[in-house]
């Protein structure tokens, strides 16, 4: 039977499977058929897990037939970003240095997906080691935006957003270091959640910026996002940064009205708008939240204008440290032409890291070097503390902060590839949540010239429930997620 993957959410797919409207094998096969038909144009996947996925689908069908208990995500096809370890499935971080690496273990988020019955479809493209905002830094070529194949799906989790928007799966995992889930979600008409730092285990993520990295969730609806967060959240003894806080049922308050909720608009995020049409979409979204009963307040976050600068000192510094483990000695590719130990290090890293990885290693090593540490890294950390304190103060006055996701809709591939500074500025609205360690979500808010535009909501630490509640009420009132990319 024909299954329209793009019309399905996790919730509707679970209902159809339970009522045996189609089998799990039918669902998973339909995803792989669509991948075979369209991924040559989209280039979302770097590796597929078809044989194992179909075996898992058959097992789900047997459980349904025998009326056995099912996990919360039983039979749901999920794509996983290629910086998240998957046992027995290649995990390359979109880098030549790990081109043939197959992890012997699962990341905690993958383990929890499997325990809930989800089916791992394969690994999706990203910027190399998550360094970028467009997937153009992938060693295996960029992914393309299903809404316009000449444009980027965002980054660094662009393969995740492209796969879900193209109808290759029903959910996707990404990571969010400085916006790498929220920005691509905004460019692809999806929900993209960055949880509170420590809310979801980081064990098994290939570390980029350890102090801001977190798994991120891509979904088609707020209800799906809440379910995925419920499955993935919780303390993990394997991750020292994992929070021991209790995990609420994030679905329980989705339908509560927004009366009494205060939303702050930081003036610094609305002063320099490069695309007036995108700004109009954001303005209409603000008006819609007001109609839904939220109180709109104007607030100020004066030091957030330094956020990108601080982020791009802290990030390369941590990158230079984290990428030190890729040396051709322990795992990953080793240069075939090296004859001495120093040549192993130099040639392996020189031949296999891409330009952006090398740039960040050099920037970070410089910022941490003797004589410059205090001038750069330490100063950036002080700015980070000031920003976090300002955000905390504002979130004591309002429940949520609303900002644009991006200054503009999806950029054309190649448009900024030769200008690293311009590409770094794509994080201009995203870095605040990362530096403050708070949750943020990108919400579909409309279109400009046929391209999606998102708005971002941020909340207090561990207050994902309020984020999802506001997003759900907006979703019900607008229905932007009912529109799908046509390949």
Number of helical stretches of at least 4 residues: 15
Find the structural class using helix and strand composition: alpha/beta
Q: What would you give as the CATH superfamily of the domain at 5-257 and 437-482?
A: Amidase signature (AS) domain
- The portion of residues forming beta strands comes to 5-15%
Strand order of the largest sheet: 1-3-2-4-6-5-10-11-9-7-8
Oligomeric status:
single chain
Rounded to an integer in angstroms, the radius of gyration calculated over CA atoms is: 21 Å
Give the name of the CATH architecture of the domain at 5-257 and 437-482: Alpha-Beta Complex
Distance between the termini: 20 Å
CATH topology (fold) name of the domain at 5-257 and 437-482: Amidase signature (AS) enzymes
Q: Could you give a short account of the major beta sheet?
A: 11 strands, mixed
